[in-house]
């Protein structure tokens, strides 16, 4: 095991910190998507971090990407905007990169890496949430295309996306099978609903995706026909790892703010941090950050080895989201009434964090997975 951080990785992480602080923290865009910020991120080159150089990417390892995304969360205070980037990269572009034919890669990756096209993933439906496999979006084969019908729900980036990875049912009997399709916004019959108002992550617009007799060219299948189950499983692994990497950086940033407050704020003639009720909260933050980093780097290493990390990403998702929310709640307590005000931004951090126990599969579903896999191993 080698836990040393390479000089280039440190340098890249510092570059992203400097870039994010200078360009991504305009509070005017905490509650709405900014195309200007998107263009800056694209120009910086972040979007193609792990994509092959031949498609305009940087060809970096997942290990480097993990560190860079952790740093992004540390320096960029706009969690919703990070969510836009994550959805674009990890569960749309990355899936095309890994499962797409050469034709699909050539068609979509360069423009996605350049930020000219924004990506999204569409799994959830009004009646199929945790039970994603209960989806009813369906597909009929015609001579030269597939015709898709259905409604997808809670699609992050929905209102701004140009390219959707859509999962739909392609076989009902004897076993239900699904297939993943690359669907363009400009295909006839594709519409998105209005931005759904949410508690947080408001810089990331969310909507329904409606597919009404959408004709998708046959070559726009991702992977193979009826292969969607595997791609869905893969998508969840990427989501549960890399969308949660920035949360570790956020936890670090919030902990540093808490340390400052614990030392600077005096009550009863001494810093509030001299009370263990306060300092122990900060100690727990440090423990959780360290544990989360170890897990993140292990998963990134597994992905660089092209290995499955289904159990590990479930554990990581559960651990990070629970402690991300706890960190924000404890920080608000340490800041007292100041923490409850909009000015100190802790309330926004907490609102943003709350969704992490729901998206990418709820934490209850992660516990089901972890139990089932542990049970299968030891029985
Ligand atoms: C901010 C945000 C962004 C999202 N972005 C996307 C996106 O881009 N694309 C997309 O496809 N989807 C997206 N989703 C949807 C997300 O994947 C679903 O919300 C999630 O899978 C849960 O489904 P549900 O909300 O329908 O809850 P339900 O499945 O209805 O669950 C409700 C409650 O019941 C519990 N529950 C259900 N079944 C079980 C069980 N078997 N055991 C124990 N508890 C159970 C759940 O844990 C939960 O507490 C997003 C959601 C959020 C909040």
Automatic annotation (TrEMBL):
<dbReference type="InterPro" id="IPR006089">
    <property type="entry name" value="Acyl-CoA_DH_CS"/>
</dbReference>
<keyword id="KW-0285">Flavoprotein</keyword>
<feature type="domain" description="Acyl-CoA dehydrogenase/oxidase N-terminal">
    <location>
        <begin position="7"/>
        <end position="116"/>
    </location>
</feature>
<feature type="domain" description="Acyl-CoA dehydrogenase/oxidase C-terminal">
    <location>
        <begin position="228"/>
        <end position="371"/>
    </location>
</feature>
<keyword id="KW-0560">Oxidoreductase</keyword>
<feature type="domain" description="Acyl-CoA oxidase/dehydrogenase middle">
    <location>
        <begin position="120"/>
        <end position="214"/>
    </location>
</feature>
<dbReference type="InterPro" id="IPR009075">
    <property type="entry name" value="AcylCo_DH/oxidase_C"/>
</dbReference>
<dbReference type="InterPro" id="IPR013786">
    <property type="entry name" value="AcylCoA_DH/ox_N"/>
</dbReference>
<comment type="similarity">
    <text>Belongs to the acyl-CoA dehydrogenase family.</text>
</comment>
<dbReference type="InterPro" id="IPR046373">
    <property type="entry name" value="Acyl-CoA_Oxase/DH_mid-dom_sf"/>
</dbReference>
<dbReference type="InterPro" id="IPR009100">
    <property type="entry name" value="AcylCoA_DH/oxidase_NM_dom_sf"/>
</dbReference>
<dbReference type="InterPro" id="IPR006091">
    <property type="entry name" value="Acyl-CoA_Oxase/DH_mid-dom"/>
</dbReference>
<dbReference type="GO" id="GO:0050660">
    <property type="term" value="F:flavin adenine dinucleotide binding"/>
</dbReference>
<comment type="pathway">
    <text>Amino-acid degradation; L-valine degradation.</text>
</comment>
<dbReference type="Pfam" id="PF00441">
    <property type="entry name" value="Acyl-CoA_dh_1"/>
</dbReference>
<dbReference type="GO" id="GO:0009083">
    <property type="term" value="P:branched-chain amino acid catabolic process"/>
</dbReference>
<keyword id="KW-0274">FAD</keyword>
<dbReference type="InterPro" id="IPR036250">
    <property type="entry name" value="AcylCo_DH-like_C"/>
</dbReference>
<dbReference type="InterPro" id="IPR037069">
    <property type="entry name" value="AcylCoA_DH/ox_N_sf"/>
</dbReference>
<dbReference type="GO" id="GO:0003995">
    <property type="term" value="F:acyl-CoA dehydrogenase activity"/>
</dbReference>
<dbReference type="Pfam" id="PF02771">
    <property type="entry name" value="Acyl-CoA_dh_N"/>
</dbReference>
<protein>
    <submittedName>
        <fullName>Acyl-CoA dehydrogenase</fullName>
        <ecNumber>1.3.99.-</ecNumber>
    </submittedName>
</protein>
<keyword id="KW-0101">Branched-chain amino acid catabolism</keyword>
<dbReference type="Pfam" id="PF02770">
    <property type="entry name" value="Acyl-CoA_dh_M"/>
</dbReference>
